UniProtKB/TrEMBL annotation:
Pfam families: TetR_C_13, TetR_N
Domain of life: Bacteria
Domain HTH tetR-type: start-end pairs: 9-69
Organism (species): Leuconostoc citreum
SUPFAM superfamilies referenced in this protein's UniProt entry, alphabetically: Homeodomain-like, Tetracyclin repressor-like, C-terminal domain
PROSITE patterns registered for this protein in UniProt: HTH_TETR_2 (PS50977)
Annotation: DNA-binding region: 32-51
UniProt entry keywords in alphabetical sequence: DNA-binding, Transcription, Transcription regulation
InterPro entries in the cross-refs: Homeodomain-like_sf, HTH_TetR, Tet_transcr_reg_TetR-rel_C_sf, TetR_C
Protein's UniProt name: TetR family transcriptional regulator
Alphabetized GO MF terms: DNA binding
Length: 197
């Protein structure tokens, strides 16, 4: 995954990207700071300069993924010259390519990392919850645009469409990981949109 996050020191960025992949490959609980140092090539002292603990590193990984998703979603919401369906498909195509690159590990990074986080409430879990509270309104806005432009019939509200789409796509992301087939993501999205015509 390549995200242009300026002002992040190179070593810090390398550690975040390496940790993200290790958490998907081995699991957060089974990844040590020694693993991160060995795979990233960044010394442990340098890692601890940027992150006080492994949980701080997990929070940084979640923020990194949040920024990646935020940029993709913004592109979808504001590209108003295109149909809503084509913008949704473009957004999901980007996710599908990333899932394939990760060899179907962590199809939804946020659900994967939430399940791997410590049981008690943590900053990491709060960050993930906050991400989802912002994601659904973005989908609601997209579907409202579709209704306003006459692309969708509007038999159900944009709020209902956004909520149902989010849960449907989370299921499709999980199935893509289980079946090793990212085409399920796009097929599900297209079928969902067909029901709104």
């Amino acid at each position: 995954m390549k995200v242009n996050q300026h002002k992040i020191p190179l070593n810090k960025k390398i550690v975040i990207e390496t940790s993200a992949q290790l958490f998907f490959d081995k699991g957060y609980g089974y990844t040590s700071m020694d693993d991160v140092s060995m795979v990233s090539g960044v010394s442990k002292s340098n890692i601890y300069y940027h992150f006080k603990s492994k949980e701080d590193l997990l929070v940084a990984v979640i923020e990194y993924w949040s920024e990646y998703y935020r940029k993709l979603i913004e592109q979808a919401v504001y590209a108003k010259t295109l149909s809503v369906e084509s913008r949704i498909i473009s957004f999901l195509n980007s996710l599908s390519m990333e899932i394939s690159k990760r060899e179907y590990k962590g199809s939804c990074p946020f659900i994967t990392l939430y399940m791997q986080s410590p049981m008690e409430p943590t900053d990491a879990k709060r960050k993930i919850t906050f991400f989802f509270t912002r994601l659904e309104p973005a989908f609601v806005e997209l579907f409202q645009q579709g209704i306003d432009q006459g692309e969708f019939q509007g038999k159900i509200t944009a709020e209902s469409m956004g909520s149902l789409f989010l849960t449907t796509m989370e299921g499709a992301l999980l199935l893509s990981e289980v079946t090793q087939d990212s085409s399920k993501i796009i097929t599900t999205a297209k079928n969902f949109c067909k029901m709104l015509y």
